[in-house]
UniProtKB/TrEMBL annotation:
<comment type="function">
    <text>Catalyzes the last irreversible step in the biosynthesis of L-serine from carbohydrates, the dephosphorylation of O-phospho-L-serine to L-serine. L-serine can then be used in protein synthesis, to produce other amino acids, in nucleotide metabolism or in glutathione synthesis, or can be racemized to D-serine, a neuromodulator. May also act on O-phospho-D-serine.</text>
</comment>
<protein>
    <recommendedName>
        <fullName>Phosphoserine phosphatase</fullName>
        <ecNumber>3.1.3.3</ecNumber>
    </recommendedName>
</protein>
<dbReference type="GO" id="GO:0005737">
    <property type="term" value="C:cytoplasm"/>
</dbReference>
<keyword id="KW-0718">Serine biosynthesis</keyword>
<comment type="similarity">
    <text>Belongs to the HAD-like hydrolase superfamily. SerB family.</text>
</comment>
<dbReference type="InterPro" id="IPR004469">
    <property type="entry name" value="PSP"/>
</dbReference>
<keyword id="KW-0028">Amino-acid biosynthesis</keyword>
<dbReference type="Pfam" id="PF00702">
    <property type="entry name" value="Hydrolase"/>
</dbReference>
<keyword id="KW-0460">Magnesium</keyword>
<feature type="active site" description="Nucleophile">
    <location>
        <position position="20"/>
    </location>
</feature>
<dbReference type="InterPro" id="IPR050582">
    <property type="entry name" value="HAD-like_SerB"/>
</dbReference>
<dbReference type="InterPro" id="IPR036412">
    <property type="entry name" value="HAD-like_sf"/>
</dbReference>
<keyword id="KW-0378">Hydrolase</keyword>
<keyword id="KW-0479">Metal-binding</keyword>
<dbReference type="GO" id="GO:0036424">
    <property type="term" value="F:L-phosphoserine phosphatase activity"/>
</dbReference>
<feature type="active site" description="Proton donor">
    <location>
        <position position="22"/>
    </location>
</feature>
<comment type="pathway">
    <text>Amino-acid biosynthesis; L-serine biosynthesis; L-serine from 3-phospho-D-glycerate: step 3/3.</text>
</comment>
Length: 227
């Protein structure tokens, strides 16, 4: 097991950094915001709480919640325009600094592609570096038609599979995963370093088990400045 000092060295010399999005890069949970916008916020929040108990697979929980929300294409677009995702303080500066150092930055999310791509645009992250779930809509009327179940992020353990794919495709030696949730922590290994983030919400399990836990992105900026 790597020590905290060793984890910091991995972060400072990383080829790539992968960020979770909901409650990490942005302040809110995308699926909860979409549920509220579609008038089923309380019911979906209750379903999320049950899913957090670990008795349901990620895909089953996602299927059930989306089955309740059933968002149309128009509703998703209106959510992004009327209530755009709020960036977490410090993330813009951190991503910019990583880019300056030649580090590849990826957004790896169990959230939705259209919302995550909007976030990527604000952070100058190419959309090719976004891995998220894709909603499907019927062509006639653009009603909800499910989601793309072939995406790795639709499954439990999917974030780890994304990191394995990135290592194989780009031959990265050191990949860091940063996020607030258990699915982020579980991505290391194959990730080389996990940094738990509690700046928006504190997940007890992550706070207790993560060897490196931060509450503000300034802490990571300072690590980069020290080199």
């Amino acid at each position: 097991m790597a020590s905290l000092m060793e984890l910091k060295e991995i972060f400072r010399s990383a080829d790539a950094v992968c960020f979770d999005v909901d409650s990490t890069v942005i302040r809110e949970e995308g699926i909860d915001e979409l549920a509220k916008f579609c008038g089923v916020g309380d019911a979906v929040a209750e379903m999320t709480r049950r899913a957090m108990g670990g008795t349901v697979t990620f895909k089953a929980a996602l299927t059930a919640r989306l089955g309740l929300i059933r968002p149309s294409y128009e509703q998703v677009q209106k959510l992004i325009s009327d209530n755009p995702p709020q960036l977490t303080p410090g993330i813009r500066e951190l991503v910019s600094r990583l880019h300056q150092r030649g580090v590849q930055v990826f957004l790896v999310s169990g959230g939705f592609q259209s919302i995550v791509e909007h976030v990527a645009l604000q952070l100058n992250i190419p959309t090719a570096n976004v891995f998220a779930n894709r909603l499907k809509f019927y062509f006639n009327g653009e009603k909800y038609a499910g989601f793309d179940e072939t995406q790795p992020t639709a499954e439990s353990g999917g974030k780890g599979r994304v990191i394995t794919h990135l290592k194989e495709q780009f031959h990265f030696k050191k990949v860091v995963m940063i996020g607030d949730g258990a699915t982020d922590m579980e991505a290391c290994p194959p990730g080389d370093c996990f940094i738990g983030f509690g700046g928006n919400v504190v997940r007890k399990q992550v706070k207790e088990k993560a060897k490196w836990y931060i509450t503000h992105f300034d802490e990571l900026l300072k690590e980069l400045e020290e080199r």
